[in-house]
Amino acid sequence: MSHTHGGAAAQSRPEAAGSRAPGSASPRTDPGSGPRPLPVDGVSVMAIVNRTTDSFFDQGATWELQAAVDRGLAAAAEGAAIIDIGGVKFAPGAPVPAAEEAERVVPVIAALREQAPAVRLSVDTFHASVAREAIAAGADLINDTTCFSDPEMATVVAGTGASVVVTHSLAAPRTELPRPHYDDVVAQVRSRLAEGVALAREAGIAEDRIIVDPGPDLNKSTRQTLELLRRWDEFSGFGLPVLAALSRKDVIGESLGLPKEERLEGSLAAAAWVIARGARILRVHDVRETVRLVRMLEIIDGSRDPVGPLVHNA
């Protein structure tokens, strides 16, 4: 393991994409400042910033533009290497027009690209049009939790040089899949991920710009997700970075019988488990705690030096 990289509001229409938080940037147009490669060594912590009023954990705490930007800056200060900005949650619900989703996420990306230039920026979207605008504003990574449900997505990513997360899920965007069934959940998840990776390659997305996410809890029961975790090392067979999105999810809550507010310790245990089995990006709500977890693991395995001072029995 190498060093960690690092770094409820009222329902209303957010600021338009052209609006700017104090000190924020306009969407960039300089073709020489395109998407940057993601960190390639060690474990990177990806912070979650949602511009929604109904996200399962933050419940609208970062709905307002400045609140979202401030949370991103705080995450960078806490050691996040990547910040993932979302404007629509994965769970079933009414569709959000792509134009409105872009209005939510693009100003945050533009502001963070200017104010936290060392941090990589991701947008959580399944709309190719939103991805295109986000990349123009400064995004480096497209986190598509629907495995290219938009047929234009792979082409947009390839054409801009951005990176992409190929995620396992089954349901159409924003729709429910009751009682998902798998004969062998790991084999079937691997098979669908392989299809997504092949599509990305065929579209011309560079090999070093592809990440896979087995999709814990996405169209999976707790028992099915636990089986993914037990066999997590099998996802390293793609030879690509593996992203783990486990933070405060229902697999943690149902395993321990805890509400979302009390799932930190379980989330950290799950993070340590998947790191030991090849995970290289952790998508989390609790950045400071997760960064400390990763750094301690690195110190134990010798890839990071202790901070010190080393005075105990010295």
From TrEMBL:
Per UniProt, the enzyme's principal EC class comes to transferase
Stated family? Belongs to the DHPS family.
Compositional bias per record (Low complexity), positions renumbered to this chain: 16-28
| Cofactor(s) it depends on | Mg(2+)
Enzyme Commission number(s) of this protein: 2.5.1.15
The organism encoding this protein is Brachybacterium phenoliresistens
Entry superkingdom: Bacteria
Region (Disordered) residue ranges read 1-40
Q: Which GO terms describe its cellular component?
A: cytosol
What this protein is called in its record is Dihydropteroate synthase
Q: Where is the Pterin-binding domain?
A: 43-295
Q: What does this protein do?
A: Catalyzes the condensation of para-aminobenzoate (pABA) with 6-hydroxymethyl-7,8-dihydropterin diphosphate (DHPt-PP) to form 7,8-dihydropteroate (H2Pte), the immediate precursor of folate derivatives.
Q: Does the keyword Magnesium apply?
A: yes
User: Which InterPro entries does UniProt cross-reference here?
Assistant: DHP_synth-like (IPR045031), DHP_synth_dom (IPR006390), Dihydropteroate_synth-like_sf (IPR011005), Pterin-binding_dom (IPR000489)
One BP annotation, GO = folic acid biosynthetic process
UniProt keywords, alphabetically: Folate biosynthesis, Magnesium, Metal-binding, Transferase
Which Gene3D superfamilies does the record cross-reference, listed alphabetically? Dihydropteroate synthase-like
Q: Name one GO molecular function term.
A: dihydropteroate synthase activity
Tell me the pathway. Answer: Cofactor biosynthesis; tetrahydrofolate biosynthesis; 7,8-dihydrofolate from 2-amino-4-hydroxy-6-hydroxymethyl-7,8-dihydropteridine diphosphate and 4-aminobenzoate: step 1/2
